[in-house]
Here is the input.
Amino acid sequence: MACRNALLEAKGDMEKAAQILKQRNLLRVESKAKRSTTQGLIEAYIHTGGRIGAMVEVNCETDFVARTDEFKALAYNLAMQVAAIPPQFISPEEIPEGADVEPQTACLLLQPYIKDLDKTVQDIIAETIAKVGENIRVSRFARFELGR
Amino acid sequence: MACRNALLEAKGDMEKAAQILKQRNLLRVESKAKRSTTQGLIEAYIHTGGRIGAMVEVNCETDFVARTDEFKALAYNLAMQVAAIPPQFISPEEIPEGADVEPQTACLLLQPYIKDLDKTVQDIIAETIAKVGENIRVSRFARFELGR
Here is the structure.
């Protein structure tokens, strides 16, 4: 229905319709950004051989959404992301003033998403927010690498 | 062979023989305590429902031992232990002077082992050391509980 409306509004122009849809999703995501997230999942990912491990806490608004496949997949993919590219912070707001870091590598949310490098981690979280209709937040992560 | 020798030495007294064996294992464990541990495993345990998760780094001396079933089981059980009884420290040496904590709860190594409350976590690590013949050390842990 949303697609049909966007196509009508774009007078059949597919590219324009996609743009309209993306903009709408963004607005929906932003409208949820202030909602409190007290439910969620702890998820872990151990890389083959057990030399690298990562654990994340991902929060949403209700236990119902926490138990959906979309949310579970997001939590798992985020744990895998942390194992693959070690972040120092979750978001750029956490970077201490004057710190010499590259935000696109140091901040989990700004990192390129390992399974689709054209997107950022923030993008795939926004996609899940649009799908499940709840605010989603990564509240913490831990990453262990053998002997480091 | 070790059992037979202990029995001979104890002149057939089973209880005394068990005592001798335990003492010998302890000596073997102590003789390994100074050996460096650079290999090992990162292991995680997520409690049912994803509300609690724990991750540990357990080290041994060689990659060969890290890949044994005994060592893997130890790492898994230690992650489960951390999820079940939240430790603050690994060993009593880490407790800051004057801190008001109960070492038997606060230190992972002194906690009663969740799968056999007659033993401590240190005991089951010592048992694995005796089995695999290498020094074993827990070097760090992380524990996440939803919303805490």
User: Anything to note?
Assistant: The first strand of chain A starts at residue 39 and ends at 46. The first helix of chain A runs from residue 2 to 9. The CA atoms of residues 30 and 122 of chain A lie 12 Å apart.
